[in-house]
């Protein structure tokens, strides 16, 4: 259950987290409201997830029952039993099930209180993390027996074929707070991608002081287009990467060609023009949960690049063949031969390093595992050989 | 451990790559774009051409070429060789002088800039005071005389460019002894001409624009003779013996002045207006060339009657009663006369006239009767008619080569057989490794065959497809309607004729089979001609067939141009490639792809509507396939905006004529004003640029869809003998790739040779592949069981290629603008891919398979893909594993026409247009490298006493070096060795 606002996959039918509405200010000692974000997963027959954002009075949080009712009301799921969790200052997902931990949650919200709701029958209790000892063991055992991790995924969202993703924010754990990586899923929808880019300039801090450098910016969103409907991209956002490739030094036409070439599975990293809605990561003071992910940070750069190496991204591999005027079929992949071993080993390397460098997502601090959201359903799709985010064997 | 080996870092492979690949731009073929100056050294027998972009190019004997570029990129106004030296001085339009030298390094000569200099007047003086109008390098090689707008002549020392102020010839000093009334009429005069006395280096002739001519005594620093001309002066020339000077004037007259003992000459001996009596244009340059037996040659530029022929670019040659005004199709930049340059010789005895026009070089043989033109071995005008496509064929069999040359020689019978008169320097380059043909298709419906084996791109043969069609232009409509008795006696010379009669005739695709001599060309109006080489003249009817690519799809209306009308009656074809079948596509859209299989006798063609297969043996259409998306109206109706109507084309032609005829005669007229205008223009440009920044360009990001326009456009066609249906039986197949990322494969049944005429060729669609990224398919290739590309048709039959491996499984390589993909055959499953655009943001513009040989290991070679991207980069990608080997920046990405014109050879070389008239040749291979390597010998002239240094030994070395040549040549060499004085010809 790694879905977590705002690092969340947005499913059709779920309201997108409206970035412009995220107005929770810093929590002062006074009567300022607590911003609370709620995410609800697939109630009833419809699978899906949705976000809600509302405010609470910090000084008068009220009782847990009232809050529970409020959540049910906000998400319009009055008769569904749910588990409520929140993210504490260390990024741990902790349950809210009585007045005490509810008050604790409200008082520690900084500035937002992120609430996470699961349907009880689907709930994954192991997602709640307090016992660091257990987790360490799991980490260890996962490293030693990597298969374990693949065979027994702890997190189940739902069956992936029941819904279709349109966009997601990914890699929040490895990106600077000022950046946002957005994945747009074009295939299967009739919606146009619906945005335009332009040349521009941005100011960078360099060893020689501030410098104006050329950059690529989103210039326009087409109403009703995919880009606009996700709410994750906005005019004047600076485009930093396209599917893992930095755009600096590339011309507008080059970036256009790269985006179109990746249009069926476009991952763009932007520096949002509006920096107020960024994920504010919790301050990682030493001690307490000991769950600091700082240890994994040195290794993050190569991961960033490899994560979206387009060669490993196979989502557009569905070329079609019609044999002898028969029915169109997808072109299958050839059985790997020795010559393609090289690229295979690379992916394995990547997989290994992911496990070693990062605590496996199912065990970690949820805030940092959120980047792996989109791969969840891939893993459970038995037809696909996905290993990692966008890292599918490409032969 | 294998897993730790990342590709691209294998040291063995890296070393091998260094032995295989190397990028060089080796030579520029063709005619320099926008030439602006001409220079000639009678001593070195080298010619120099300067351009408006600041390039200078030196040419001598075929293969002897040098190139230099001024850093400033300013227009080269004048070029002067220093007499008796391997040095030259250039004057740019920013009034700077540059000294260039030919220096020897490791056996070959190189052109280097040595010095630069800008003449500066005293502070406060107007810029015109030092604006250089004429340059005279003195035969002493120690000084340059610089005539200026102020009328002063400055003297600078060489090679230091130190101004010798005490030797300045001021206009005051010159005017001292001029009669008062004459002086008053002329307040301001610029120096128009400077000429050294041919017999007495101590005297120079100075001509001023208002007509005054003086002979200046350099030792006594005074005027020794005055010639009080009254007409505005254009130029001067010395008679060889120094007894007479000839002046030419703005009113179209020229005058002879005797150099007598009289201090003052008030009137010329004789004055003539050759094309009078009506007002004439200026004569801007004149040569007076004496001959041993007979009257002199008087050669002058301009002077045409202003009203009737004022727009002609002419040079007249008068020799006794013979007179011809050579009429050039583009503006004359400059000219010189090749003559006996020995200062001691009694007569000039001119042999040839070399004319640099704006668009071509024309050389006239003055020794042969009728003064025929000489076929230049280099500086070919590639753009006689605009180039519309190119096709390169490597390693031509000798037999075909000889037949093409023989066909071409019959077309060149009107040329003089005089050896090329500019023969300085020695070509050291090894003989070309093989015979290569470059075929260029042109807007006027011609195909030109060029010898592209070596440094000199030489026209071998010209093929015209026009005669097959009925066009508005009457082929008998002579460009020169004037009879022999007409006055002025104009004669059209040169081949530059950019005015296309009918744009539909334009050639779009060419394919030549070098083994069979079959050639197919396709054009703008959907016409496909199949030809074969015939050594005899023939008169026959060309069969024609129609290919309706829309088949039964109805209700569409083509709004583009009409198809060409074919002639029904027999047509006479000269020896060479003669068409025997014409296929016309309906609708008559531009043919966008073409393939020929000479063994199966099949030709495939594609347009924006679909593709077809034609059996040229039985002259029967095998099938057509419509690739058009039903909603694609734009492709259906014809890209109206891109189609030039006949009317528009004519209008443009006239506009071009007018533009080229705008006289820019007065090179320095109002220099100040142009400066201001330029400044204003640049300011305007800047403002416009800023405005653009305010409203930046946007790019739409959208996935391609099946409904996009021109998805049916057929980009590539390919014949292959491969396993299309099952892995046990291979068969002929035809592959087609479209703009929308679709690949069609047809299984062909070609009857065996003995029943080839009896049974029809059959075709059946076997596969259709849709690439989901929908990028245009630009290349299709089948790799055999060893991963080697299938050989060309007839290659195996001629023992020039190994038979393809038919045991292992074949693979299909599909190259789209964005990706390279390898699929297995016959069951199509994806095997490998390289996503170029997703990684780098560049798109494939050109792709070819090239064979790269190792420069270290004699028998090692490998096949790779060479690609050119839309960014102008060249990349080499390995086969069959699709690993990027190396990348070189080649063409500026803004140079769209350069990128579009690029053509690769089969052995890792390539050509692209750097201007409408010039091909840049480049090489990616370490093994095949065609570049100029030549030497200009400077050792022969030693010391300062060159004037007397005509030792027999020196002559002997010269003779022995070139002893293999013709007697005539030896004679010329003798003259040259003894001819160090008398340079500064221009």
Automatic annotation (TrEMBL), chain A:
Pfam families: PB1, PDZ
Domain PDZ: 181-274
PROSITE patterns attached to this UniProt entry: PB1 (PS51745), PDZ (PS50106)
GO biological process: cell division; centrosome cycle; establishment or maintenance of cell polarity; protein-containing complex assembly; regulation of cellular localization
InterPro entries: PAR6_homolog, PB1-like, PB1_dom, PB1_Par6, PDZ, PDZ_sf
Compositionally skewed regions (Low complexity) per UniProt: 283-296
CC terms in the record's Gene Ontology section: apical plasma membrane; bicellular tight junction; cell cortex; cytosol; nucleus
Boundaries of every PB1 domain copy: 40-120
Keywords assigned by UniProt, alphabetized: Cell cycle, Cell division, Cell junction, Cell membrane, Cytoplasm, Membrane, Tight junction
Family: Belongs to the PAR6 family.
Name used for this protein in its record: Par-6 family cell polarity regulator beta
Species of provenance: Chelonoidis abingdonii (Abingdon island giant tortoise)
Automatic annotation (TrEMBL), chain B:
A Pfam family per the record: LLGL
Entry keywords, A to Z: Cell cycle, Cell division, Cytoplasm, Exocytosis, Phosphoprotein, Repeat, WD repeat
Coiled coil: none
Domain Lethal giant larvae homologue, chain residue ranges per copy: 272-372
Keyword check for Iron: no
Example GO molecular function: myosin II binding
Domain of life: Eukaryota
Start-end of each WD repeat: 433-451
GO CC annotation, single: plasma membrane
Subcellular location(s) per record: Cytoplasm
GO biological process: cell division; cortical actin cytoskeleton organization; establishment of spindle orientation; exocytosis; Golgi to plasma membrane transport; regulation of establishment or maintenance of cell polarity; regulation of Notch signaling pathway
Role, per record: Part of a complex with GPSM2/LGN, PRKCI/aPKC and PARD6B/Par-6, which may ensure the correct organization and orientation of bipolar spindles for normal cell division. This complex plays roles in the initial phase of the establishment of epithelial cell polarity.
Complex and partners: Interacts with GPSM2/LGN, PRKCI/aPKC and PARD6B/Par-6. The complex is enhanced during mitosis. Interacts with DCAF1.
Family note: Belongs to the WD repeat L(2)GL family.
Protein name, as recorded: LLGL scribble cell polarity complex component 2
Natural source organism: Chelonoidis abingdonii
């Amino acid at each position: 259950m790694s879905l977590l606002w705002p690092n969340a996959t947005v499913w059709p039918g779920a309201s997108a987290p409206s970035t412009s509405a995220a107005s929770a200010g810093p929590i002062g000692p006074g009567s300022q409201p607590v911003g609370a974000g709620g995410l609800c997963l697939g109630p009833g027959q419809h699978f899906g997830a949705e976000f809600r954002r509302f405010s609470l009075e910090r000084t008068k949080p009220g009782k847990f029952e009232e809050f529970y009712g409020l959540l049910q009301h906000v998400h319009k799921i009055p008769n569904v039993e749910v588990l409520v969790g929140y993210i504490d200052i260390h990024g741990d997902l902790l349950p809210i099930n009585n007045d005490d931990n509810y008050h604790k949650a409200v008082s520690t919200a900084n500035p937002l209180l992120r609430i996470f709701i699961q349907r009880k029958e689907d709930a994954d209790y192991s997602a709640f993390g307090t016992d660091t000892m257990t987790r360490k063991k799991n980490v260890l055992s996962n490293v030693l027996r990597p298969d374990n991790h693949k065979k027994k995924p702890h997190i189940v969202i739902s069956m992936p074929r029941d819904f279709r993703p349109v966009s997601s924010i990914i890699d929040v754990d490895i990106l600077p707070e000022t950046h946002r990586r957005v994945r747009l899923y074009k295939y299967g929808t009739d919606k146009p991608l619906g945005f335009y880019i332009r040349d521009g300039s941005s100011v960078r801090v360099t060893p020689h002081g501030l410098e104006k450098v050329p950059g690529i910016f989103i210039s326009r969103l087409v109403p009703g287009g995919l880009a606009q409907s996700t709410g994750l991209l906005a005019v004047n956002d600076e485009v930093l990467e396209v599917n893992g490739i930095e755009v600096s030094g590339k011309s507008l036409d080059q970036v256009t060609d790269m985006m179109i070439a990746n249009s069926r599975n476009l991952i763009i990293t932007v520096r949002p023009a509006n920096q107020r809605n960024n994920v504010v990561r919790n301050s990682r003071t030493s001690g307490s949960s000991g769950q600091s992910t700082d240890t994994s940070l040195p290794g993050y750069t190569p991961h960033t690049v490899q994560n979206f190496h387009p060669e490993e991204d196979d989502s557009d591999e569905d070329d079609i063949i019609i044999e002898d005027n028969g029915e169109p079929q997808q072109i299958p992949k050839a059985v790997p031969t020795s010559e393609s071993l090289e690229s295979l080993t690379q992916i394995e390397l990547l997989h290994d390093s992911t496990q070693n460098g990062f605590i496996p997502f199912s065990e970690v601090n949820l805030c940092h595992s959120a980047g792996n959201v989109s791969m969840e359903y891939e893993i459970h799709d038995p037809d696909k050989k996905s290993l990692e985010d966008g890292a599918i064997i490409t032969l | 451990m294998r897993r730790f080996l990342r590709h691209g870092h294998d040291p063995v492979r890296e070393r091998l790559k260094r032995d295989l690949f190397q990028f060089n731009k080796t030579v520029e073929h063709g005619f320099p774009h926008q030439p602006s100056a001409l220079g000639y050294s009678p001593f070195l027998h080298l010619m120099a051409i300067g351009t408006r972009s600041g390039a200078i190019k030196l040419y001598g004997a075929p293969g002897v070429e040098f190139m230099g570029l001024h850093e400033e990129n300013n227009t080269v106004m004048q070029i002067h060789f220093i007499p008796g030296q391997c040095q030259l001085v250039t004057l740019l339009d920013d009034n700077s002088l540059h000294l260039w030298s030919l220096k020897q390094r490791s056996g070959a000569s190189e052109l280097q800039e040595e010095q630069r200099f800008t003449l500066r007047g005293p502070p406060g003086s107007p810029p015109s005071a030092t604006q250089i109008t004429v340059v005279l390098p003195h035969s002493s090689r120690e000084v340059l005389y610089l005539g200026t707008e102020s009328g002063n002549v400055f003297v600078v020392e060489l090679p230091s460019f130190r101004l010798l102020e005490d030797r300045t010839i001021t206009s005051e000093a010159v005017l001292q002894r001029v009669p008062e009334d004459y002086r008053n009429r002329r307040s301001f005069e610029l120096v128009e001409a400077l000429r050294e006395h041919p017999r007495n280096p101590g005297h120079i002739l100075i001509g001023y624009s208002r007509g005054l001519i003086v002979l200046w005594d350099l030792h006594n620093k005074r005027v020794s003779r005055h010639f009080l001309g009254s007409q505005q002066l254009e130029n001067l020339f010395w008679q060889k013996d120094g007894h007479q000077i000839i002046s030419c004037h703005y009113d179209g007259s020229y005058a002879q002045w005797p150099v007598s003992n009289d201090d003052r000459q008030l009137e010329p001996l004789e004055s003539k207006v050759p094309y009078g009596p009506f007002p004439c244009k200026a004569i801007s340059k004149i040569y007076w060339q004496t001959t041993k037996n007979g009257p002199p040659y008087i050669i002058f530029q301009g002077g045409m009657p202003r009203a009737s022929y004022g727009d002609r670019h002419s040079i007249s040659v008068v020799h006794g009663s013979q007179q011809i005004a050579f009429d050039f199709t583009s503006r004359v930049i400059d000219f010189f006369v090749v003559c006996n340059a020995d200062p001691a010789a009694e007569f000039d005895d001119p042999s040839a006239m070399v004319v640099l026009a704006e668009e071509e070089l024309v050389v006239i043989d003055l020794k042969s009767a009728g003064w025929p033109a000489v076929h230049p071995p280099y500086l070919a005008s590639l753009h006689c008619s605009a180039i519309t496509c190119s096709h390169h064929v490597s390693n031509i069999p000798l037999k075909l080569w000889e037949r093409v040359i023989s066909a071409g020689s019959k077309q060149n019978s009107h040329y003089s057989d005089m050896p090329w008169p500019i023969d300085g320097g020695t070509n050291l380059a090894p003989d070309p490794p093989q015979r290569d043909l470059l075929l260029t298709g042109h807007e006027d419906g011609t195909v030109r065959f060029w010898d592209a084996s070596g440094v000199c791109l030489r026209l071998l043969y010209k093929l015209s497809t026009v005669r097959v069609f009925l066009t508005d232009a009457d082929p008998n409509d002579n460009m020169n309607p004037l009879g022999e008795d007409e006055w002025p006696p104009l004669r059209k010379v040169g081949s530059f004729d950019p005015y296309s009669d009918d744009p539909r005739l334009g050639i779009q695709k060419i394919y030549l089979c070098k083994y069979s001599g079959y050639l197919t060309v396709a054009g703008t109006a959907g016409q496909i001609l199949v030809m074969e080489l015939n050594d005899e003249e023939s008169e026959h009817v060309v069969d024609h067939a129609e290919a309706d690519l829309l088949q039964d799809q109805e209700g569409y209306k083509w709004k583009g141009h009409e198809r060409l009308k074919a002639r029904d009656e027999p047509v006479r074809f000269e020896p060479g490639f003669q068409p025997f079948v014409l296929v016309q596509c309906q609708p008559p859209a531009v043919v966008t792809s073409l393939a020929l299989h000479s063994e199966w006798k099949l030709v495939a063609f594609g347009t924006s509507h679909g593709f077809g297969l034609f059996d040229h043996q039985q002259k029967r259409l095998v099938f057509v396939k419509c690739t058009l998306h039903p909603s694609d109206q734009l492709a259906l109706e014809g890209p109206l905006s891109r189609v030039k109507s006949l009317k528009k084309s004519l209008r443009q032609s006239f506009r071009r004529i007018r533009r080229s005829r705008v006289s820019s005669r007065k090179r320095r007229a109002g220099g100040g004003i142009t400066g201001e205008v330029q400044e204003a223009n640049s300011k305007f440009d800047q403002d416009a640029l800023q405005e653009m920044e305010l409203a930046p360009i946007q790019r739409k990001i959208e996935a391609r869809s099946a409904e996009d326009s021109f998805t049916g456009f057929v980009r590539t066609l390919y014949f292959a003998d491969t396993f299309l249906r099952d892995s046990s039986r291979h068969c002929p197949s035809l592959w087609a790739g479209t703009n929308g990322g679709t690949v069609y494969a047809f299984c062909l049944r070609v009857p065996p040779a003995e029943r080839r005429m009896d049974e029809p060729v059959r075709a059946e669609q076997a596969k259709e592949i849709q690439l989901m990224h929908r990028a245009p398919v630009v290349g299709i290739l089948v790799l055999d069981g060893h991963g080697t590309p299938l050989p060309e048709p007839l290659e195996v039959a001629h023992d020039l290629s190994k038979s393809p491996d038919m045991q292992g499984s074949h693979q299909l390589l599909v190259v789209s603008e964005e990706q390279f993909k390898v699929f297995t055959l016959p069951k199509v499953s994806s095997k490998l891919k390289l996503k170029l655009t997703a990684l780098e943001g560049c798109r494939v513009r050109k792709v070819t398979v090239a064979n790269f040989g190792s420069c270290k290991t004699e028998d090692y070679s490998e096949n790779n893909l060479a690609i050119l991207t839309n960014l102008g980069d060249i990349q080499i990608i390995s086969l069959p594993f699709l690993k990027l080997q190396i990348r070189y920046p080649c063409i500026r990405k803004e140079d769209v026409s350069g990128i579009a014109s690029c053509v690769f050879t089969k052995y890792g070389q390539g050509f692209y247009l750097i201007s409408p008239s010039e091909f840049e040749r480049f090489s990616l291979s370490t093994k095949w490298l065609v570049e100029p390597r030549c030497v200009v010998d400077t050792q022969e002239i030693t010391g300062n006493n060159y004037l007397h240094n005509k030792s027999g030994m020196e002559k002997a070395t010269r003779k022995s070096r070139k002893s293999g040549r013709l007697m005539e040549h030896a004679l010329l060499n003798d003259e040259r060795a003894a001819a160090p004085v008398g340079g500064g010809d221009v």
